[in-house]
Design goal:
Lysozyme-like, two-stranded antiparallel ribbon, 2 domains, single chain, alpha/beta, about 35% helix, globular
Length: about 280
């Protein structure tokens, strides 16, 4: 088994006290997103990386790095196993983010939150490119199958076990985050589309985008299931699921009915309370 050298990240080095040995070949296949269950305040990444938490014996766990709105720190090199997601540790690298699993989307997307997500995405994009990990968000089923991509701590809990944590929560804006990651991997702008922008995409790209947004709305616990089965199963996993159910004719209205892209788009518009002219 060949040695996998670490990715040079250029972040301040705050070594974690608790971690495993070196990854064997093949290299890590997932990048795991965490929330550290701490306030989103400037400087907290360095503070928690220090001797009072990850840098000492108090935590007993470790991420590969952590971010707040001022930037990030590296705590375990990418050639080394960190203790961050239970039975997923041996196939993944993990990055903590200031904030709470209970955050709303609005709380994740404050100016401070977006600055943190930008900083994190630039780093994880660099890691992804170096390790050959595509910039794609995984379903729980794909995490279980050890597919390459990005996921959450909660996804690892559902797919692999060995952990009880559900972070970063159902409202983490991974759609925006993956826009930033993709832009950083391809050299494009990390500024998300604004209202009134013209979307330059073909029908399949639009269909994939709609499906991705619905996955966000419904919650990643249901990401691997066909949409009509999720909604028909009840109870609704979110307000968006309830909207889809009402739109499609109630709990019995989805039997044998595959939602059209138009219906999916309407569910998105309802979820984000967007009114078309």
């Amino acid at each position: 088994m060949s040695y996998i050298p670490p990715v040079s990240l250029g972040l301040p080095w705050y070594p974690a006290a608790s971690h495993g040995g070196q990854f064997a070949s093949p290299p890590p296949r997932q990048i795991v997103i965490h929330s550290c269950e701490c306030p989103l305040t400037a400087g907290i990444a360095k503070s928690l990386a220090g001797p009072n938490w990850f840098g000492g014996t108090a935590a007993g766990t470790s991420p590969h790095g952590m971010f707040d709105q001022t930037g990030g720190v590296e705590e375990v090199h990418t050639d080394t196993i960190a203790w961050h997601c239970g039975n997923g540790n041996n196939t993944s690298v993990g990055y903590e983010h200031a904030g709470y699993a209970a955050f709303t989307r609005a709380e994740w997307t404050t100016d401070a939150g977006l600055a943190m997500l930008h900083a994190s995405a630039k780093t994880t994009a660099k890691v992804a490119k170096a390790l050959g990990i595509p910039g794609r968000w995984l379903s729980v089923a794909e995490v279980a199958d050890n597919v390459q991509g990005f996921c959450t701590h909660n996804d690892m809990r559902l797919a692999r076990g060995g952990t009880t944590h559900t972070d970063p929560g159902p409202n983490f804006p991974y759609d925006l985050y993956m826009q930033y990651v993709t832009a950083a991997m391809t050299g494009g702008s990390t500024t998300p589309p604004q209202q009134g922008d013209v979307l330059d995409m073909d029908a399949k790209e639009l269909s994939d985008l709609i499906d991705q947004r619905l996955k966000v709305a419904l919650g990643n616990d249901y990401a691997g299931a066909p949409l009509q089965k999720v909604v028909a199963a009840g109870p609704p996993s979110s307000r968006a699921a309830s909207k889809v159910r009402d739109m499609a004719g109630g709990t019995g209205g989805l039997a044998g009915h595959a939602l059209t892209q138009g219906e999916k788009l309407q569910a998105l518009l309802d979820h984000f309370e967007i009114k078309l002219p």
